[in-house]
Amino acid sequence: MKTKIDAIDKKVEDENKKLEEENAKVSGFSKLYPYNTPKYHFFIATFAAAINGSSQPLLGVAFAKVLTLLSTPKDLLVLMNDGNEDYLQEEVTKICLWMVIIAAVCSVGYFTAKFSFGTLGNNVTLKIRQILYAHILEMNIGFFDERDNGPSVLTSIMAADTAVINGIGTESIGPTSESIFGMIIGIGIGFYFCWQEALVCFLVSPIMVIGTTIDMKMMEGEGADNSELEKEANLLCGDAIINYKTVQSFGHEDMLVKKYEELLAPIHKKAMWRGVTSGLAFGYSQFSQYVVFAVMFWAGGAIIKNSEIDEETGELSINPEDIFIALFAIMFGANAAGTAASFGPDAGKAEAAAQKIFRIIETKSTINAIKMDEDVSKK
């Protein structure tokens, strides 16, 4: 009988281990997507985020035009525009109005995106908490005997982890959409006005992308590592609080405090080392960003230097204003893309939280009293 019981326990253990491995392979976003309801909020928010990201390169175009106008001598502008002395003020006013229009569109876009994503995030948190709580109540008694499923761990998952899972759901879709559309529109404008400058940016941009990717990967791993290290500390803390009468009766509070400090020591050491490595990764990402900008400015100077002069008009074959427009459109687009990197820590913690939540939800109960009662009532 013991052999049969051990075989059954081993089979259940292997199934749970296989389930955890399969759960780790699937991203949390794909699992959370079905809970994003109502769906029209999802598409409206994504569209608004795309508009917000596209506005950044357009603002760069306006900025480049204003900068070119203000850096050109007034007498030269009057001479180039048939003696119109009000040309500078008229053009600057026109561009500033465009900036105001872009600002108005962005204000509506950001409000729409935040409202829709907030609605989706609250709905996801509510549904996940309901499903998780119902599934915990359906689990068999043996499930709660495991240390990984202690009361302190389960309550922490119910209270904290369900609140941060939006870091890989609705909260990350907005910045991601903004960054994608910002870069696409920025590079498109760059190739339209000065393909040479845009090509240089396209060739050196992997340096910045690699730096940002390393920085985000470092922050994504932080959530999972800390989660595993904090588990034992949370279990000890939960057991001590639940059984506080027993703890006081033995009078060994100082021993438990010392044990708790020992469990926190590796977490502190890991966090200190993570701070050093994250700092180096973030420093490299910023360094690569400024290097890319320096290369782009240098390339702009080289393009103007090597451009030919039209014999009939006496003007350069490549207009410096076009180079400025391409440069600032790409820079503002890259700035929009850089905002996604700031969500790295949230995404890392949210991914770890989603793994813990769906580990419980997808674990099958060997005895489900609730469903048994339902089957009996149906019969």
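the 2nd protein, sequnce then structure:
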Amino acid sequence: MPFESPRVRRAVTASLGVLLLAATVFAPLGTIAWSHQYTVEQVEPDDPQLGETLAWVDQATSCYPENDACELFYSLKDTESRVVTDSTYHAAQGDDQKTRLVIFPDSTQEFYRLQLNPYENESIRIGLTPISNATALEQASTPSGYYPQGVQNLVEEGQIRTNEQLSGYALWSHTRDIIAHDNAYYRQDSFTYRGSAFGGTDFHRLVLLAVGAVLCYRAGRIK
């Protein structure tokens, strides 16, 4: 019979072994080559939740009517700039000295660029200029070049699987920055970690790996 030919048996055995090895890596069971998976999500200017997204970054201050710390910003909303003392301004800012963007999300999302002009007499002219969603997103973002190469690769590719922790990802989790890269904006999406605990899925992957390797080995021995 044709199947009894050594060449045919070798080809069939090798093909089956390669198929099992491929299933070990690419089947829904997953791959044994990675333990960390990182993904990012693109942020668009027309995102209805943009205000909530930008409110987390250091460059923005989100103001609600019940927030007394935003009293100064509310007094400037839709009005001309005014001169206040440094102490008044810093009291409004609190510990947050990086604000470039002020958000009023109470009714409709409204974004304002903070305008500052300090004077030598310990006073400062402060004003708010209305800006578009796209400008607000740009204003509150951080260029990818400020982060290590691992994060730069992640926003470039959208997803990374690796057996090591991604450089800069822990920093990004702390800052919650919106990262600007190649004229687009990204935030963290999901992180998956598969620990070293030996579970059922790992067992099935290793069985497939072992059987596939044995079949490939046997194929090379068929004469």
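Residues 196-200 have pLDDT under 50 and may be disordered. Helices lie at 6-26, 50-54, 71-76, 86-93, 133-140, 149-157, 169-175, 200-221.
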